[in-house]
Amino acid sequence: MHAKVFSATTLGIDSHLVEVEADLATGLINFHIVGLPDKAIKESSKRILAALKNSGFRLPPRLITINLAPANLKKQDILFDVPISVAILQAAGLLDLSKDFINETLFLGELALDGKIRPINGVLSVAHSVLKSGKKRLIIPKKNCQEASLIKNIEIIGVETLVELVAYLRGEKNIEPTKPTFDNYSKYIKKHPLDFNQVKGQFAAKRALQIAAAGMHNILFIGPPGSGKTMLAKRFATILPEMSFDEIIQTTKIYSIAGLLKNQSLIFHRPFRAPHHTISQAGLVGGGSNPKPGEISLAHKGVLFLDELAEFKRATLEVLRQPMESKKVLISRANSSLEYPASFLLIAALNPCPCGYYGDKSKKCICSSAQIQKYFGKLSGPLLDRIDLHVNVSAVDYDDIKNKNLNGKSSAKMKEEVDGAVQIQKQRNLKNAFMSAQEVERFCILTPEAEKTLKLAFEKLNLSMRGYHKILKIARTIADLCQSDLIDKSHIREAIMYRTLDRNHN
């Protein structure tokens, strides 16, 4: 006998419909799964038979063949235990599901040997694509229901055991669909415990971070150990605009596929990822035999903080260049290519020299010029070119620490100004850091005084075309923060201040 139900598999952050066909034929007892399954799915035959037996379902001795179609689509992760079990029970005559019910329903779930249905990764990605596939019902592990309920207009049925699932499918038990619980998602956003007014002094660095948040500019801090680079970076999230509903879905899909949601159902706050400098290329961009998102994708719509930038392997840093431009990462394998989003804002920090104290007022640097040159030589020019803001962060004096008047603006006030600048960019339908050369010409209109200042800087610093455009983009963001349509002389001057490496190399 033959039966068919529907399930799905995830590739990258997208899901693809899979037909699960079961055929029971007379012959020696055996269990085959075909259709390009990975090793974990091939091993599921023993688990499924044990779960069916321990749930009280006695199958006649048959040759069982399971086909996962389309056959050319790689199937991975343990999503198919439940749909395979349902297809087998339907083929054996222990279930009698209507054709309409089967065509409207997707099944997902992993089975334990005792018949319990365990939660799985990637449910949000599947739920997000259910409506596109023409389905309107999703039967999944109960613990995944809250995650899936973010998607409206689909029926979410949560089950805990195979016995409960069969009782529901036979009409012996009624299970109420999970109701959407995130209509007003803003109420789940909690106040951040950190605040910029907790940082003494460092006004230039705070200002640079405000510009970075307003225009989505990548930023590099250069300063001695203990100057507050990490403290500043950790507070950056407090001035970023709140995530939109679509951004919450995109980010949560990545964490769902990576299996990092844990007890939370959604990612409401912009991610802050700070990998150690010993991280591998695969850990940073994603990959592995069963590819998973890397740190740059986990930082999607948030912040990637690379502390001690010069301590990272040069080859590891070089893989950042393409994602920083395209905002996505492509992982190629022999039989498939996966694409993960990677639209992150980079905050990098490094010491000014190997000992860390070049230019410091309190401690003398012991490094030679050759050592300093070699230290910065670990960072390629193309990578540094992709970082808009270069900021020197000096150590704070004792008097500054004790001065209560040096707290500066609160995060709330800084964010208010950032939101105003972001709103202006929304009207242009772009973000300043991502402007093309044509958009720079269109939107970066300078006053005559600003034009003279920029020309002088271009000639004196011997700027490249990329450096010229960087200054204009930064100046455009500064003007937006000031609610100014034109870029003035003061905006250009401030923008040039944040190109430290351009000035030092010329």
Structure description:
- The protein is an alpha/beta fold and 506 residues long.
- The chain folds into three domains: 2-169, Ribosomal Protein S5, domain 2 (2-Layer Sandwich), CATH 3.30.230; 196-410, P-loop containing nucleotide triphosphate hydrolases (Rossmann fold), CATH 3.40.50; 435-506, Helicase, Ruva Protein, domain 3, CATH 1.10.8.
- The chain is built from 23 helices and 18 strands.
- A five-stranded parallel beta sheet has the order 11-14-17-10-18. Strands 1-2-4-3 form a four-stranded mixed beta sheet.
- Helix 8 (203-215) packs parallel to helix 18 (411-428).
- The longest helix is centred in the C-terminal third of the chain and has 18 residues, at 411-428.
- 42% of the residues are buried.
- The model has no long low-confidence stretch (mean pLDDT 89).
Spell out the blueprint of helices and strands.
Blueprint: E1 2-11, E2 14-25, E3 30-34, H1 39-42, H2 44-54, E4 63-69, H3 81-91, H4 99-104, E5 105-107, E6 110-111, E7 117-118, H5 123-130, E8 137-141, H6 145-148, E9 155-159, H7 162-169, H8 203-215, E10 219-222, H9 229-234, H10 245-258, E11 272-273, H11 281-285, E12 286-287, E13 292-293, H12 295-298, E14 303-306, H13 314-318, H14 321-326, E15 328-332, E16 337-341, E17 345-350, H15 369-377, H16 381-385, E18 389-392, H17 398-402, H18 411-428, H19 437-443, H20 448-461, H21 465-481, H22 489-497, H23 500-504
Parallel strand pairs: 3-4, 5-8, 8-9, 10-17, 10-18, 11-14, 14-17
Antiparallel strand pairs: 1-2, 2-4, 6-7, 12-13, 15-16
Helix pairs in contact: 2-3, 8-18, 8-21, 20-22, 21-22
